[in-house]
Amino acid sequence: MPGYGNDCSGNTDSPLLGTPLVQLEDVSKHFGLIEAVSHVSLQVESGSIFGLVGSDGAGKSTLLRMVATMIKPSSGKIVIDGLDVMSQKMRVKPLIGYMPQRFGLYQDLTVGENIDFFMDIFGIFGAERGKRRERYLGFSNLLPFVDRLAGALSGGMKQKLGLACVLVHQPKVLILDEPTNGVDPVSRQEFWDILGEMRQGGMTILISTAYLDEGEKCDHMGLMHKSRILGIANPEEFRSHYPNLEEAMIHRIKEVDEGLIYDRFGL
Amino acid sequence: MNLINIKAVSRKEFYHLIRDFRSMYLAFIIPLLLILMFGYALSLDVDNVKTMVVDHDRTELSRDFIRKLDASSYFKVIYHLRDTVAAIRYLDQGSTTMAVVIPPGWTEDIKADREAQMQVLLDGSDPNFASLSRGYITAFVEAYNRDRFIDFLNRSGKERIEPPVDGRIRVWFNEDLESQNFIVPGIIAIIIMIVGAMLTSLVIAREYENGTMETVRSLPIRGGEFLIGKAIPYFLIALTDVLVAVFMGQVLFGVVMKSSFWLMVLASTIYISVALSLGLLISIATKSQLVANQIAILVTFLPSMLLSNFVFPVENMPKVFQLLTYIVPATYFIDILNGLYLRGLGLDHLWPSYLVLVGMLVVLSNIGFAILKKEGM
Ligand SMILES: Nc1ncnc2c1ncn2[C@@H]1O[C@H](COP(=O)(O)OP(=O)(O)O)[C@@H](O)[C@H]1O
Ligand SMILES: [Mg+2]
Q1: Looking at ligand 1, which residue's alpha carbon is closest to its atom 2?
Q2: How close B186 comes to chain A (CA, Å)?
Q3: How far is the CA of A227 from the centre of ligand 2 (A)?
């Protein structure tokens, strides 16, 4: 059934939502016999945060990697800001900032050298370079640590440095794959505060998470299970039929596992 | 090609390099050690052999013999001893390596046309050195005999007698038969393989292992830019090493380039690029530092080590190995260097080897680009 994502584009109350910036149409990905992503369609509207919630192996990373131009879909179409991700990869890349699940920072480079590498690649030089450095390392409270080796940072600080690196070219679309996995609660909160600020600035964010409480901070959340998107709604809608989000999820997953329904989420 | 991207990658790679002790060691210390070690240990040439003499004869003639021995560049008489026992003691201590013992009545025997014998004691602990010393002393005695003979004839006969046929071997190309002349090109080839291929075989595998390859792939940077950026720091180091090796070869071992210096730089530039593409290709294909390193040793370091005549001459190897040398880049590089160093040849003779190296570079780098492209870069 095409277009779960279409269901919720009209009935949202967020004032910042605009036109769809990221569009997925019937996207699938096979790895041999494994179908990691199966017929996913969704839209992420400009200036919104879209959360992909699902347990391990659901297919979140595979989906995000396709959006981030890292791998090609087996079928379907992905469009970002009017550009086809498959055929216009080099034009899409500057538009996006992608932080992989296992974000590889250069451990033997300092905080400053890591962010400099990203600025080098995106051609940020001159006065702007200093400003961006100040701004994005400042956001993540990393300014006091510019000369520290990235390998010597704590887990939370590493993730924030990763975020600073992918933000530094001010992408239109930010793609984050479980960025707060294994991060302490305080750093997690700080991380989400930064995302909130970016969203205020008009950035569109696509983020995956296994934490339900993080799903609640998104404008829309898509529940992903066994390679499929079971439903897309805003957190209030998910909650409206159940006492809490967790129960809503579990109920929904059970239904699908029992092969009962393939219709829209709990409505 | 975007120069900004290449510069960005190079700069980053340079930081990795200077922070990694193992890489720095391979890049700078090992080449230096190689030059010194091989230069000295493998300079098999014998000159100024420390020689003792025991002269029991004590005549005009025996003193003349000893004087000529000392005057020759091959021997240096450092002790005049009374008896053989003392000579043996010095040999045991290792302070000298050869003793010449002239028995009593030596001159008389010569004058009476009897066979005049002489004893030579050699330290055989270094067989190579001993056999060379033996060859030199034998040749020296023969030459001495010949001179004596001619001298005798000239003095007794009325007219001057031309020396009989004087068979002398003229060695071409490496006229002073100095092994470092052969060794310097070999050292350069090996150093380039260590810095070029062994070091770079790690650099992309490291990105895969640390998960940074995913990051790099998400950036607007092409495979070619990435590879060239990665190669540049290693290229500069390898070229520096080559120049140091050439310089040290000249200063320490007196190996002087007969042909153009710039042809050597050109050959090194191409060969370094071949080594770099090979190393990077291994790195891309294996994605594991451990495997990459082992393969690099197997396909780059070992062949150039064997081919550089360090271990044994190629013509003594089994036929299969000899055929294998045709696909090993070091063969062509060493061929060029020998041509430049020993024979003073120019591009008019050496161009086929240059061409083969360029061909190898084109093939190897394109395979590397193709694999990266397939991986989505
Ligand atoms: N490169 C790959 N090759 C083969 N199978 C893969 C690959 N990437 C992911 N998968 C499989 O696809 C499924 C979804 O994985 P993934 O997208 O990583 O899920 P999640 O991120 O939600 O944990 C899993 O069964 C995983 O084993
Ligand atoms: Mg994942």
Answers
A1: A31
A2: 35
A3: 12
Boundaries of domain holding A176: 20-105+172-265
Nearest CB to B210; choose among A72, A98, A107: A107
B57-98 pLDDT, tens per residue?
999 989 999 998 888 878 889 899 988 898 888 888 888 888
Looking up residue A26, the CATH number of its domain turns out to be 3.40.50.300
Cα-Cα-Cα-Cα torsion A173, A175, A179, A181, nearest 10 degrees, comes to: 140
| Composition of chain A by helix, strand, coil, percent to 5 | 40, 25, 35
Overall pTM surpassing 0.80 (yes/no): no
In a domain, A125, yes or no: no
Of A30, A31, A63, A102, the residue with max ligand 1 atoms within 8 A of its CB, to mutate for a pocket test, comes to A31
When divided into structural domains, chain A yields a total of: 1
Backbone phi, then psi, for B258, in 5-degree steps? -85, -35
Name the closest residue on chain A to residue B7, using Cα atoms.
A120
Q: Is residue A185 part of a domain?
A: yes
Complex ipTM tops 0.90: no
CB atoms within 10 A of CB B242: 24
Pick among 3.20.20.100, 3.40.1710.10, 2.170.270.10, 3.40.720.10: CATH of B49-155: 3.40.1710.10
